[in-house]
Each structure stands twice: as structure tokens, then as C-alpha cells.
Amino acid sequence: MSRLSWLAAIPVLLAIGGVVVANRVTPFILGMPFFMAWVVGSVLATSLVMWIVYLLDPANKP
Amino acid sequence: MNNISLLIIAVSLAFIVCLGVRARRGIEMNLEQWSVGGRGFSALLVFVLMAGEIYTTFTFLGASGFAYGFGGPALYIVVYTVLAFVMSYWLLPPVWRFAKTHRLLTQSDYFAKAYGSTALGTLVAVVSLVALIPYLILQFKGIGIIVELTSYGGITPATAIWIGAGAMTLYVICSGMHGSVNTALLKDAVVLVVCVFLGVYLPYHYYGGLGDMFQSLEQARPGFLALPETGKNAVWYLSTILISGLGMYLWPHTFASVYTSKTETSFRKNAAVMPLYALVMLFSMFVGMAAVLQVPGLAGGQIDLALLKLSIQTFDPWLVGVIGAAGLLTAIVPGSIMLIASSTLFARNIYLVAAPSTGDAALSRVSRVAALGISLIAVILTLRGGQSIVALLIMGFSFVTQLAPALFASLLAGGLTNKYGVAAGLCVGVGTVAYTVLAGMTMQKLFPAAPSWVHDVNIGVIALGLNIVAMLAVSAATRRVAQGSIAGRLQSSPEPL
Hints:
The structure holds two protein chains of two kinds.
Chain A: H1 9-21, H2 34-56
Helix pairs in contact in A: 1-2
Chain B: H1 3-22, H2 31-36, H3 43-54, H4 57-70, H5 76-101, H6 107-114, H7 118-150, H8 157-175, H9 177-207, H10 210-220, H11 234-248, H12 252-257, H13 265-278, H14 280-294, H15 306-314, H16 317-354, H17 360-384, H18 387-401, H19 404-412, H20 419-438, H21 443-446, H22 452-455, H23 460-477
């Protein structure tokens, strides 16, 4: 557990944000309903965040 | 010419069994090899194993069915899975280290060792088996439905379940976890291709494209693709994500497959990759949404048939056979891992406690006999059906979530809890779940006077809350008696990399 773990708050905030600001069908983004597009965007962002955490975490250095 | 689909399913099953049985070659199959693959699996194998467990028939039929029945709220499945992956980055490495140091084989072993109590291990094993066997039954039910529909009624569900369960048990007894991981590789590849194909092609075929499909749906059912105001609304969505996300790694078979990894770095690497894989579930939801206007009228438990019904209506028999084979794999591969976990639980945490002088080789035999026995019990219960099984299925997920407080306390707050507190919390939590399900309790019945948003909270939150309160209270009350059994030893073992 380090300061890095605070980055994990981003995915959680994105999930909560989804119901607060993104719970709507329109506008369609890339053909997807807005709410679904938000979830897809959040998943991509989460993957990116976790990749950054992985790279910065000294535990993964050889 | 419908026999072609049956032929494809049969050939796939035979191929899987060969693959599973051959996996034992060159391995001296002791219990550690059988249950946790000798702790030697690479990051890729750990990935397919964990993905294999998480993407069960539920992904294939359940996620599409939920999207068909409820629309937007189905996205909770993607979100809780992804948040559990995030948590896994910090959760799994210490669990793995502890398991390696103490040579643990089951989830119950973890609790027994962390809290210094064999009896607690047995209690956890009993709760785990009560949760896990219905989950296995669910996979068998899936086999019956998938094979019956995709063989155009050529094979009855009972025949399909006997054959599927028999094939799975055969390679489990021969190869254990090595068989599961070999078949998981194939299964993930096939399911990935089939899911993406169906999710892209069906919206295109019926609506002209994904965007056109969503627009037609919005016209026909305004708001269906977002969260509703009541029922499965934002409060339900967030509380269900909390409960399901906490429970995901607490499934005994998922927990035990953490032990199969060769290194702890695998988990951190996979935490970044697995969220992308979660997006595959989106494609099976597209299928369910495509079915809303094409095969209308499915209700209740029938919504799980949306994917198969739409596929049969659309494709030639050979392609239906391929889809059926993929569906069969999503039931057999995770089912095999559940079977290994439950028989190891029985052997290590129940049989060995009753007969402590049992040697390694004998225990290895006991767990294989247990695999046969558990599989047989599960088949019989599946065929007999009945309301009690449905209730157990609903309870399974809530049961395993009740292990979460004890796990997190052992890692983060070992000083505040002990074996008595954990046992008390577990009993209170499991009892509350059983009561709410069996008595048909809802939040509305429990708190009639509360504001309406309270009524939409997932009822699992109550059991979890009472569990935590009982755990902390009893731990505090028994602090003096329990001295020395407090779980502070987890962080002490440095990583042997």
C-alpha cells in the first residue's frame, strides 16, 4: 500500500460518476447510449490507470 | 439437417475431454499438483484460469438475458468485475505470499491459518460448500439448456447433463487443475470469438448496425438503455456493484486459483489487462439487446434463453452447433474448477480434521473420490430441481460475500479481530442472508417507513453490516481469551521471488 493506491480511487469515482452525471440515453456516443459509452470509457481509463500503477510500482521492478 | 449441430457439439466435447485428460502427462499427481497446479502457472495461464472462472455460463446466457430483461442496469456486471480487478492488484499478492509460505490448498486453509483455528477453517468450508454446490448445479443446468436448444431438441436435458458432468468429472479426476487450465485456454479463445461475432453480427443483421439498434430501442422503449427512476435504479446499481465486487474473489474456487500462480507479479500485470477483457461481456449484452425487439415476450427465468433463441432463429444449424459448443465450454470449464475446489475443501478442511492421521497420498485419493461424489450429488439435485435449489442459488453469492470482512480484517486490521469474532460475524451474516431469502424479505418490508431510496438498496448490505458489527464486537469482548491467535502474521513473510 502506497501513495500509488490512491490512483485506484479513479475507477471508483468513474463508476459513481456514471450514475450521477451520465445516467441518460442521449446523446449517442459512437453509436452507443451515453450511459453505456461512459461505462466503456471508464473501463478503458481503468485499464490505463492500472497499467500506470503497474509501471510505477517499485514492487514490479526486477 | 440438424444433426450437424449435434455432431459439432459432440466432437467439441470429445476434444475437450482428450485435452483435459492428456494434461496429466509428465506430472506426478500429488494433491498440490491436483488442486493448485503445483503453484507453477505463468501469468497467461493464471489469466485464462481466472477469466475462465469469472466468465461462466452466466456471461454467456445470464449477461445477455439480463440485458434483454432490464437494459441499462445490466452494465453493473461490467463495472463490478472491473472494480474487483482493480482491488485484486493489492489483494491477491499478499494472499498468494501467505498461501505459498504455509502451503495452503483451499480458501478455508487461509482462514484457518490466518486466525489460527482449524475449527474456523471447517466452518468456512461448510459455508463454502453450501455456496459452491448450487453454483455447480447452475453450470449443469446451463449444460442441459444449451445442448437441448442447440441440438434442436435432439438431446434431452437429462441426457446432456449426465454426459457433460461425466466428461467433466473424468478429466477432473485424471488431471485436476492441469486439465482445467488446458481446457480454459481453448474455451477462452472460442468464447471470445463467438461472443464478439454474435455481438457485432446480430445488431447488423437485424438493425443495420449497432448505432441503429440502439436508436430503434430508444424509440420503442425510451430510457430502457439507462437506469430507471425506481427498481433497478442508481441506488440499486451502486449497492449491487459493492456487494458483487467484494464477493467476486471470495468464491472458494476463484480464491484457490490464486494459489496456482508461480509469481505474484502475475496478479499485478493481470489487473491492468483483465478490465479490457471484461468488455467482452458487452458483446453478449449487445446480443440480449438485439433480442428485445426480435424475440419479444420472454419473462422470468426465460430471459436467459434470449441469446440461444435469437441465434437459432438467425443461423444455419452448423453455426448453432458452434454456439452450442461454446456455451457448453462456458459451463464445463468453470464447473471443473468448482468441482476441484469443493472436493479439496472436503478433503482438507472436513475429512482431514475428522481423521488427522491421513497421509498425503490417501488424502489425494479422498479428494478424487469426493470429486466423483460431489459431481453425482450435483447431477441428482439438478435433475430433481425444486424450489430449494433456486433459493440456494440466490443465496450463494451473498454467502461468499460474508467472508469478505474476515479477509480484509486479516490483511488490514489483524489487531482488531480474532477467530471468535470472525466466526460470530460469519454466522450472523450467513444467518441473515438465509433469513432474508427464505422469508422473502425485501428492504421495503424491513423498513416500511424509510425514504424510498432505501427500498432500492441491495439487501445484501444488511447482512454484511451486521456481520461486520458482530465480528468487531465479539472480537473486542473476547480479546483477553483469544490472545495469541490474532492475525498479525500476514505481513511478516517477505516475498520469496
